[in-house]
Amino acid sequence: MSSIQINNVTKRFGDFTAVEDLSLDIQEGEFVALLGPSGCGKTTTMNMIAGLEDISEGSILFDGQDLSSTRIQDRNIGFVFQNYAIFTHLSVYKNLSYGLEVKKIDKSAIDSRVRAMADRMSITHRLDQKASSLSVNEMQKLAIGRSAIVEPRIFLLDEPLSNLDASFRAYMRTELKVLQHELGQTMIYVTHDQIEAMSLADKIAIIDEGKLMQYGSPLDIYNSPNNRFVAHFIGSPRMNLIDGELRQEADQLKLIISGGAEIALQGQIKSDFTSDGRVHSGSFGIRPQDIYFGDKRSSSDIEMKGTVDVLERVGPKRIAHLQVSETSFIAFDDQDQLKLGDEVPFYLASDKSMAFDVASGRRLGVI
Amino acid sequence: MTDTIKQPENSPANLKKQGYWAGVARDGQKMGFWFILPTLLLLLFIVVFPLFMQLYLSVTWWTPLEGIPWYRAWEVFSWGDNYVYQFTDERVRGAIWRTILIMIVAVPAQFFLGLSLAYLFMDNFPGRKFFYSLMLTPMMIVPAVVGLMFYLLFQGTGPVNAHLGLPSTFSWLTDVNRAMISIIIADVWQWTPLMFLILLAGMLGVPTDQLLAARLLGGSNWQNFLKIILPRMKAVIMIALVLRAVECFKIFDLIYIMTKGGPGVQTETISVFLYKMTFGEFEWSYVAALGLTILFVLSVIAAKGLAYIAKKDV
């Protein structure tokens, strides 16, 4: 078990920069998810941590120790591949024992450890069978067990749940969390699925185009995204991000959005937008659950009027698409009273709204 | 069970029942037959006919020297005498022993060289493509030319002696022991590339992430090679070995050009012996019997090897 410090790491493949100036501090025993869209450089980052890729610039320290000149086989890093990389020509037992056998550990010690791990992963009944006969779900367990049995200093998982069926994925999510707790392992988990990242990780590193967008606890990232990308990427349904031109009229600050409609900025959000005087086009962000209907709850909330364009049912709730001139706001219709085509008033909770600079994507105001 | 369920007209099960040609019109079938007929006749003429002719001659005393046409060979019918005699023939025994000697020395040598080279080529070193092409050239050269090359190399005044600092009286090809060594060296040189090619293909078939996983689990290169790469290559290794082993029985050009089977009969392998019997002694019926026996033995070996491969579920 160890902590990992990633210091200003850059990785280039020829002219292409896959990872740029990335720094992360991962504490001992922490579960960190690297989250980002496909091709964002998260797998490259993980491969660099594992030593499968060389680092172009910067350094990665394990407990303050640089392992870049240590051979892969001596690094003692647990790695679960996306397709598991099970040794299909060997038995399940031999798969589990591989990491111990190559260290020339005493046979009886190997046997007891293999049996304990098989028991932990509930694949004992499969021990003597060929690994190629396992189901995908069992392969997943075997892959994790095979890495865990050698007690690696850190544990890397590359999209380990993406090949599983939905119900087993939910089960395995819980299982991974329990396992991480039991092993007390530092785990790094690569995924493009925000639900996995949100439910598993102690901390999430959001990466886009090779750059670190934000690093923090799931709640932090959800509640106060650093920039427009994170705000857009995290949350389902996605945050409403409404771009427009800022205009000062008398003592009223307005955001003129596409189609000419106006958002009259008040309260906290108004000062957020004005915190940087040079910004002229802003992006107004608000999560669907922070849009409400009925009575105004706070004097600073912003009143809007829109037409109900689409209604989708998601479980017990309905999602309403509210058309305001050319812009669509997504909101939860929690009272189940909206009808298609209705023109309804709704409110944007000012203290939950966020302001971003359109040009740089940076969050304005707070932080 | 399946009979009770009505299968759609063109389901694989139905097609199998009616034969794969079921969907094709009768005319089409006939036309297909006419298309393959010329090739069929050719095959009949060059494979089946000689085989039966050989079988026929092998049970007679027929030789082209006696003036009887071959189809009247029954006049000198010999029953199985040729087949019995070959087992007591010292020269046959010697030739087979020398063939096997080449096989048990040259094939393992080619195998280990090919395997090491293949492992080397798993890495992406600079110039890999160039060396890869270079590696394969010996295989492309006509065996007779290879024979000539090594014939020249191993001359008393040739480059081998010159480089090793040996006197020109030190002979390779006319020495009782060294003649065989020279031939084995030439054969290894020519056929290691084929071994290399087959083994490299097998080695590249080992999934990369399994190799990575094995390394990450702490296995040394040697351990991973023994436990992951080799076991996964079993079928390919078997193919390569059987192929080369069987080919050893056909080795001729090299030996004929380098030593003509000499000195004496010291490098006379079974194929060289067969050649000499055919065109030197004209013992055609005997050659026919011996040839058929070898064909039979080799077929059994190859069949066993292939059965072994088929059993492996790789």
How many angstroms does the end-to-end distance of chain B come to? 32 Å
Query: Tell me about the biggest sheet of chain A?
Result: 6 strands, mixed
SSE order of chain B in H/E notation?
A: HHHHHHHHHHHHHH
Strand content of chain B: under 5%
Largest sheet of chain B: none
Oligomer: heterodimer
State the low-pLDDT regions of chain B, or none.
none
Number of helices of chain B: 14
Q: Give the tally of β-strands of chain B.
A: 0
Strand share of the residues of chain A?
35-45%
- How many individual helices of chain A? 9
How much helix, percentage-wise, in residues of chain B? Answer: 55-70%
* Radius of gyration of chain B, in angstroms, nearest whole number: 26 Å
What structural class should be given to the helix and strand makeup of chain A?
alpha+beta
Cα-atom radius of gyration of chain A: 25 Å
Structural class of chain B: mainly alpha
Query: Which strand order does the major sheet of chain A show?
Result: 6-7-8-3-9-10
**Overall strand count of chain A:** 21
Q: Report the largest inter-chain contact.
A: A-B, 25 and 19 residues
Question: How confident is the prediction overall: mean pLDDT of chain A?
Answer: 88
What is the terminal separation of chain A in angstroms?
A: 33 Å
Structure description:
The complex is a heterodimer of chains A (367) and B (314). Chain A is of the alpha+beta class. Chain A is built from nine helices and 21 strands. In chain A, the strands form four sheets. A six-stranded mixed sheet of chain A has the order 6-7-8-3-9-10, sandwiched between helices. In chain A, strands 13-12-11-14-20-21 form a six-stranded antiparallel sheet. In chain A, helix 2 packs across helix 3 and helix 2 runs parallel beside helix 4. The model of chain A has no long low-confidence stretch (mean pLDDT 88). In chain B, helix 4 packs across helix 8, helix 5 packs across helix 8 and helix 11 runs antiparallel to helix 14. The mean pLDDT of chain B is 86. Classes of the chains: A alpha+beta (367), B mainly alpha (314). At the A-B interface, strand 6 of A face helix 9 and helix 10 of B.
